[in-house]
Design brief:
280 residues, alpha+beta, Dna Ligase, domain 1, 3 domains, four-stranded antiparallel β-sheet, three-stranded antiparallel β-sheet, 7 strands, rod-shaped, zinc ion binding, Cell growth-regulating nucleolar protein, coiled coil, DNA binding, zinc
C-alpha cells in the first residue's frame, strides 16, 4: 500500500483515501501530495499512476557498500499489477466507447491496490466501497472480462507461434544434418568366401526375422520367460539359421548388440526387470 503526505496540511493519507481527503479536509485545494517512501511530489491526478514504491529494505540498503536488498516474490502483487495493466489498457483503448460514468469508475480503480479478481467480489467491492451503482459495476466487470479474454487469446497465439517456430527450426536442423551426413556404405552383394550362408560382412544375417522369432519364443510361455533364457534360445536359433554350430567371438558380440536393440524395438513384447512377456 502506497502512503502519501498531504503537502497542504501535512496529514498522512493512504492512496485510496486521497480523493476523499481533498473533498473533506483540504476541500477546494489543488491536490499536492508526496510519497512517504520515495519522497517524490505529485500534483493533481499524477499520484494515481504511482502504484508501487520502493520498500524499506531498498530505502535503507547500503548502496555505498554495493549491497542491494532482494525483494521478496509476491505472487499476489504480480497478479494485481497485471490487473492494473488491463485497466490501463481499457482506458487507453478507443474500442469500448466508455461512457463518462464508466470511464470515471475505471479511473477510480487505478488508485486502488486490492481490486478483487472474481466477479461477485468485484461487484460487491465496487458497489460498497467505491459507491458505484450495481448495474454500472456489472458493466465495468463485463468490459474487464472482455479485455482479459482478449489478452489471453493474444498470449496463447504468441505461445503457439513460438512453438511452431521452434518445431520448424528443429526440422530444418535435422534436414541439414541429414544432408551433411556421409552416405552409408552399401553391403557387399555376395557373401565373402568361407562365410556362412546368408551372412553379411559384419557378422549379422541379413534376412533373420528377429521380431518374429522373439515373439514366437515368448508367446509359448504364458507367464513370460526370463531374459537370459530368451537370449539363449534365440542364440541357438540364430546359429542354426547361419548353419554353424558355434558363432565366432565377433558374431557373438554382434548378436548381443542386435538382440538388445531388437528387444527394445519390439512393441509386442513387454520387459519387466528380468522377465519378458507378450504386451497386453
Amino acid at each position: 500500500m502506497v502512503f502519501f503526505t498531504c503537502n497542504i496540511c501535512g496529514e498522512s493519507v493512504k492512496k485510496p483515501a486521497v480523493e476523499k481527503h481533498y473533498q473533506t479536509r483540504c476541500r477546494g485545494k489543488d491536490k499536492n501530495v508526496s510519497c512517504m517512501d520515495c519522497l517524490k511530489d505529485f500534483y493533481g491526478e499524477e499520484y494515481v499512476a504511482h502504484i508501487k514504491c520502493i520498500s524499506e529494505a531498498q530505502k535503507y540498503a547500503s548502496q555505498s557498500q554495493g549491497f542491494a536488498a532482494k525483494e521478496p516474490r509476491n505472487k499476489n502483487a504480480q497478479k494485481q499489477e497485471s490487473w492494473m495493466d488491463i485497466i490501463r489498457a481499457i482506458l487507453d483503448s478507443s474500442e469500448y466507447n466508455l461512457t463518462p460514468a464508466v470511464r470515471s469508475a475505471f479511473q477510480k480503480l487505478q488508485s486502488v491496490d486490492n481490486v478483487p479478481r472474481k466477479k461477485a467480489k468485484f461487484e460487491n467491492y465496487v458497489g460498497n466501497c467505491m459507491r458505484i451503482p450495481r448495474q454500472q459495476a456489472t458493466q465495468v466487470w463485463d468490459i474487464l472480462e472482455k479485455e482479459l479474454n482478449k489478452m489471453k487469446e493474444a498470449k496463447q497465439a504468441e505461445l503457439a507461434r513460438i512453438k511452431a517456430e521452434k518445431v520448424a527450426a528443429l526440422q530444418q536442423q535435422q534436414k541439414e544434418e541429414e544432408e551433411e551426413a556421409p552416405p552409408k556404405k552399401k553391403s557387399k552383394p555376395e557373401a565373402a568366401e568361407g562365410a556362412a550362408p546368408e551372412e553379411i560382412s559384419n557378422g549379422i544375417s541379413a534376412d533373420f526375422d528377429w521380431l518374429a522369432q522373439l515373439t514366437k519364443i515368448v508367446g509359448k510361455q504364458a507367464d513370460g520367460i526370463f531374459l537370459e533364457k530368451l537370449r539363449k534360445k534365440l542364440f541357438k536359433k540364430y546359429a542354426k539359421h547361419l548353419s554353424v554350430e558355434e558363432l565366432s567371438e565377433k558374431q557373438a558380440k554382434k548378436f548381443q548388440k542386435r538382440f538388445d536393440k531388437q528387444l527394445k524395438l519390439a512393441d509386442s513384447l513387454q520387459v519387466n526387470g528380468d522377465l519378458v512377456k507378450i504386451a497386453s
